[in-house]
Amino acid sequence: PAHSNTFHKGRLTWAGEAPCTVRKTDYAFEMASSNIRYGEGVTREIGMDLQNISAQNVCVMTDRNLSFLPPMKAVLESLAKNGVKYKVYDNVRVEPTDSSFKDAISFAKSGSFDVFVAVGGGSVIDTCKAANLYACHPEADFLDFVNAPIGKGKPVIKALKPLIAVPTTAGTGSETTGVAIFDYEPLKAKTGIASRALRPTLGMVDPLHTLSMPERVAANSGFDVLCHALESYTALPYNQRSPCPPNPINRPAYQGSNPISDVWSLHALRVVSKYMKRAVRDPEDLEARSSMHLASVFAGIGFGNAGVHLCHGMSYPIAGNVKTHKAGGYSVDHPLVPHGLSVVLTSPAVFNFTAPMCPERHLEAAEILGTWASGFVKVKDAGPLLADTLRQFLFDLHVEDGLTAVGYKKDDIPSLVKGTIPQERVTKLSPREHTEEDLSRLFEASMKLY
Ligand SMILES: NC(=O)c1ccc[n+]([C@@H]2O[C@H](COP(=O)([O-])OP(=O)(O)OC[C@H]3O[C@@H](n4cnc5c(N)ncnc54)[C@H](O)[C@@H]3O)[C@@H](O)[C@H]2O)c1
Ligand SMILES: [Fe+2]
């Protein structure tokens, strides 16, 4: 059955009664986002911001590649101009792991920093969030805050230091979210830490930084925006998610689709549809690259509160089990299936599978992405229509032909399924319930796309 108009169900409780004692599913949702400042060249203000909060000792994090590029130069110039004292950590790993997080955490712990600045894509921003979190909780064990069931998923109670995020990709939206993702090497699958407390204080979104992105980084980070928008818009509605939290501190950051996230996610999808191909193909197209930078913020606010589901849940073992695949355009010395690519490769199969639960949302998405879905299109065709639309979109942007093209064979499917099972935090937000056999079939259907 369609579920997309079920937000305004009748009240299930009487006034004064604690709702979660009488119902299993949640009845409320909460919107959280960082402050966002957007503008061409706005990075020049960061030194003043740090002065305004009387920063004494700033930790600036980035990755080795970016440490030589214009975004870092702009940040350090502004810090120098405003007499801000800082130390640089440029050892962030592209697609971080538990050990790379721990290295950054020990740098943060040893420096007694009072403010953090992250200059980079999701890898840098996420690493910086974790470094700030554990530097403020020196007694905590690393797994304490990591999502259950891999970690203990403890709520963050202490306030963290201010963190200013300067995103250089148009992708993760990490500047808006309370999420930090890493590859947990013992399980060969990604997991993360999710708490509103991790949100950056300010996301400084300067579109000039996107101009230096190589073509494949622009493509893959753009696919991340696409999937954030699509998955959050089609996620299980917040009032069908269980359990109902007994205390608001237990309400997860990813709550399920909700009327406010819908606005952000749909708008992000429209921007992706209009500008993504231009942004990938022409690195000098400032209008397109700026629009995609904003789209990553819009989608970040949408999915940061609604969550993502199967494409992301299944992407974590795709990234974690990588064997030898080299990501073209990425200056890294390790095998890598970049996040956006690992997410989008299963998208045709996933949305074909989820469409029966909310077909009109899937049809709407196909239409936004340019497929004419006339009034004659049957509800049952929503899945195939969106899947075909996505396949064409990926083909036009020269995406690898499915999981086989990034090094996977049918024999790998059981380990890919095994790595998806612990990703409940997101897979439970799938609008359609699924078994391990369903997951196997989705991986199998994603082996080749075209
Ligand atoms: N926290 C969240 O909410 C969230 C959401 C989605 C993804 N993620 C995580 O973020 C990571 C991926 O981040 P990403 O896609 O932003 O890429 P990234 O940070 O991994 O960077 C990819 C590559 O692009 C380079 N690069 C970045 N910006 C550049 C620029 N402006 N010019 C030239 N080169 C540039 C980097 O040096 C790196 O080599 C993954 O670990 C993923 O799991 C986090
Ligand atoms: Fe993502």
Classify the helix fraction into a percent range: 40-55%
**Total of helices:** 16
- Main sheet summary: 6 strands, parallel
**What is the alpha-carbon Rg in Å?**
21 Å
Q: Which regions are unreliable across 5 or more consecutive residues at pLDDT < 50?
A: 1-13
Helix-strand pattern, N to C? HEHEHEHEHEEEEHHHHHHHHHHH
What is the fold's blueprint, element by element?
Layout (H helix, E strand, L loop, with lengths): L18 H4 L12 E4 L7 H7 L5 E4 L8 H12 L4 E4 L8 H14 L3 E6 L1 H14 L27 E5 L11 E6 L4 E6 L7 E4 L9 H20 L24 H23 L4 H21 L3 H11 L18 H6 L2 H8 L4 H10 L13 H15 L16 H8 L3 H4 L8 H10 L5
Parallel strand pairs: 1-8, 2-3, 2-4, 4-5, 5-8
Antiparallel strand pairs: 6-7
The structure holds nicotinamide-adenine-dinucleotide and fe (ii) ion.
Fe (ii) ion binds next to α6 and α10.
Explain what you see:
The protein has 450 residues and is α/β, with parallel strands linked by helices. It is 42% helix and 9% strand. The protein has 16 helices and 8 strands. The protein has helices at residues 19-22, 46-52, 70-81, 98-111, 122-135, 215-234, 259-281, 286-306, 310-320, 339-344, 347-354, 359-368, 382-396, 413-420, 424-427, 436-445, and strands at 35-38, 58-61, 86-89, 115-120, 163-167, 179-184, 189-194, 202-205. The strands form 2 sheets. The chain has a 6-stranded parallel β-sheet, with helices on both faces. Helix 3 links the parallel strand 2 (58-61) and strand 3 (86-89). Helix 7 (259-281) runs antiparallel to helix 8, helix 12 (359-368) runs parallel beside helix 13 (382-396) and helix 14 (413-420) crosses helix 16 (436-445). Residues 1-13 have low confidence and may be disordered. Nicotinamide-adenine-dinucleotide binds at residues 63, 65-66, 69, 71, 94-96, 120-124, 126, 168-169, 171-174, 177, 179-181, 190, 209-210, 212-213, 217, 221, 224, 330-332, 339-340.
